[in-house]
């Protein structure tokens, strides 16, 4: 890479707007067009009644904090799964279990989903997600599409650069975006270089208990870590991360963090660190086992890379990693084998912040010139050795050959894409059928809904030599990344397992009962079409009377073990609602501090007599 290219990059950013306008014009012309071509595209995305989409697309819900699920190729949204944010529609964050899991937070910033892997392939059991807003990691159980665990991570400053999983989901890795003093301590910005740290969290996940454990954390120089990936096959013990702000800027980052011609890719051997942690070689920092890889020979290396890269992605064969320049209009292909050789021969080019630097020319395989496309961000792959790069500034996807760097196709997106997601794109065996560009800007694609437009997603058929744009779909803010998983890998349950021994569950309406313990009232009730039963023996089994100030526990079991019969449970005027899916037991706890008569009603339409599915909460005044 030379200075000229970097200059082009800067000029590119400045002229980006102009280029976008050119592409918009192209789009309008292309669109004027060909009725026969449009018919064939429509047929490719049409899923007739009785059939289903071939793929699930799990898309981040950005600062909604939630997971969006789409069908591909129809691009129909199937479901919002609440993850980091309360959801009144399902009562997520209202019932006891989910309320505890959310820990009082009311927002999250979900950037990157990662489906659990076995042998480098999606196994479809769980999906992990990062919360950049409040330093959390979450797991969604893909048998129920319910969030099963959320863990808060200490010492982090916005875990943006994950999540990504190692080949057998040994670890869910999350590098931090903002450097910050450890343990949330105070330190002046003048102390940035000494006191601020970058951190990578390495969490494990137990599939039986469906819970996380923070295995260890890696402390790093106060650079900003950006989109990262785990090795595969020959590189499986490594993770690679791009960095920016190697300038240590603490203000006006848009200028001050773009000074250096080069930033770094950091490669870390997690296997080495795992062994060291097992040997007790760590410090306890704020409840985390903190290891400094600079104390472990062979555990960490830096490789210079074109300035301010945004992402690095490992090829499906695990042999190369590709960084995208963002401010330098090129993609750089690096070789793991070459990196390993440089490491073996101790061929270092000095140190940066005590990290041995591998010489760029010893690790690089090639620089790929995207022939004028600008703003490369993220790379995806197909099954034929091609890479696909999103180009944020020139609003397009560029298809090129990983082996030779030859650019094969460029297709406009509508508009500015962040990530793209290819079918099975992060696995050792991508499908090569579809790619979806996740765009930040929709401009005039859809009916106007005011000054803020929806985000958009472009579906392309990539099975041929040239990409074919099929459809643009709107989306709520804001998909950053998505994974597209073949439907055969997802095995959703039809109903919750009926576990007779489950705490607080009641499986027959005759067993419904109310137990009082001092000022606690426990209702062990059932929901079925089309009634609630709280106390089988009472004159009015669907009424509950408590005293003002009592703490009320509604332990509700949905005993309708039938597909898709979900009941809701709303208490009028008490700001409370939750749901109970078939075979599920949920508990809602609250203080009945308001005296009066409050209707209870099923909020989820469940039968022709759904309207009759109601009862009363009577709160006697003190
Ligand atoms: S980031 Cu959004 S476009 Cu959070 Cu994955 Cu690159
Ligand atoms: Cu039960 Cu509506």
From TrEMBL:
Q: Does the keyword Metal-binding apply?
A: yes
Question: Record's Gene Ontology CC terms?
Answer: membrane; periplasmic space
Q: Which domain of life is it from?
A: Bacteria
Recite the UniProt keywords alphabetically.
Copper, Metal-binding, Periplasm
Protein's name according to its UniProt entry: Nitrous-oxide reductase
NCBIfam families, per the entry: nitrous_NosZ_Gp (TIGR04246)
In the UniProt record, the signal sequence range is none
A GO term, aspect molecular function: copper ion binding
Q: What is the lineage of its organism?
A: Bacteria, Bacillati, Bacillota, Bacilli, Bacillales
Compartments where located: Periplasm
- Quote any Pfam family the record assigns: nos_propeller
What residue stretches are annotated with the Cytochrome oxidase subunit II copper A binding domain? Answer: 518-622
């Amino acid at each position: 890479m030379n200075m000229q290219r970097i200059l082009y990059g800067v000029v590119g950013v400045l002229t980006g707007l102009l280029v976008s306008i050119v592409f918009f014009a192209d789009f309008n012309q292309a669109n004027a067009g060909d009725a026969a071509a449009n018919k064939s595209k429509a047929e490719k995305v049409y899923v007739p009644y009785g059939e289903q989409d071939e793929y699930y697309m799990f898309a981040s819900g950005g600062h909604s904090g939630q997971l969006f699920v789409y069908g591909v190729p129809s691009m129909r949204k199937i479901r919002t799964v609440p993850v980091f944010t309360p959801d009144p529609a399902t009562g997520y964050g209202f019932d006891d279990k989910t309320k505890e899991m959310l820990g009082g937070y009311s927002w999250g910033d979900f950037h990157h989903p990662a489906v659990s892997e076995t042998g480098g392939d999606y196994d479809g059991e769980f999906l992990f997600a990062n919360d950049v807003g409040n330093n959390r990691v979450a797991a969604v159980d893909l048998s129920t599409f319910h969030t099963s665990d959320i863990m808060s991570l200490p010492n982090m400053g916005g875990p943006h650069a994950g999540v990504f999983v190692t080949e057998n989901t040994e670890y869910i890795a999350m590098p931090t975006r903002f450097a910050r003093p450890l343990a949330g301590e105070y330190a002046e910005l003048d102390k940035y270089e000494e006191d601020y740290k970058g951190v990578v969290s390495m969490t494990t996940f137990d599939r039986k208990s469906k819970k996380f454990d923070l295995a260890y954390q890696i402390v790093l120089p106060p650079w900003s870590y950006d989109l990262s990936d785990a090795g595969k096959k020959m590189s499986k013990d490594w993770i690679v991360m791009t960095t920016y702000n190697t300038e240590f800027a603490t203000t006006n980052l848009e200028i001050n963090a773009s000074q250096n011609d080069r930033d770094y890719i950091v490669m870390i051997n997690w296997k080495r660190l795992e062994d060291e942690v097992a040997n007790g070689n760590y410090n306890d920092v704020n409840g985390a086992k903190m290891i400094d890889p600079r104390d472990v020979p062979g555990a960490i290396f830096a490789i210079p890379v074109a300035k301010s890269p945004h992402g690095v992605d490992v090829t499906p064969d695990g042999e190369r990693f590709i960084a995208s320049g963002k401010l330098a209009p090129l993609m750089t292909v690096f070789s793991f084998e070459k990196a390993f050789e440089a490491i073996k021969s101790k061929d270092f080019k000095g140190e940066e912040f005590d990290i041995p630097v591998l010489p760029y020319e010893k690790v690089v395989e090639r620089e790929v010139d995207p022939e004028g496309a600008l703003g490369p961000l993220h790379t995806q792959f197909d099954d034929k050795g091609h890479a696909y790069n999103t180009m944020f500034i020139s609003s397009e996807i560029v298809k090129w050959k990983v082996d030779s760097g030859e650019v094969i196709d460029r297709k406009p997106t509508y508009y500015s894409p962040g990530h793209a997601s290819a079918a099975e794109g992060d696995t050792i065996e991508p499908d090569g059928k579809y790619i979806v560009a996740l765009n930040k800007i929709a401009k005039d694609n859809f009916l106007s809904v005011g000054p803020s437009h929806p985000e958009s997603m472009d579906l392309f058929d990539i099975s041929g030599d040239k990409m074919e744009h099929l459809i643009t779909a709107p989306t709520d803010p804001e998909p950053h990344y998505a994974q597209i998983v073949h439907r055969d890998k997802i095995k959703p349950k039809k109903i919750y397992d009926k576990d007779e021994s489950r705490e607080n569950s009641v499986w027959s309406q005759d067993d419904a009962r109310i137990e009082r313990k001092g000022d606690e009232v426990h209702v062990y009730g059932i929901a079925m079409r089309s009634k609630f039963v709280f106390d089988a023996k009472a004159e009015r089994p669907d009424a509950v009377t408590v005293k003002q100030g009592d703490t009320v526990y509604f332990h509700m079991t949905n005993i309708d073990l039938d597909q898709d019969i979900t009941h809701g449970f709303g208490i009028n005027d008490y700001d409370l609602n939750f749901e109970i899916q078939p075979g599920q037991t949920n508990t809602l706890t609250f203080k009945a501090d308001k005296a009066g008569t409050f209707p209870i009603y099923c909020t989820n339409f469940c039968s022709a007599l759904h309207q009759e599915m109601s009862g009363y909460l009577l709160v006697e005044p003190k």
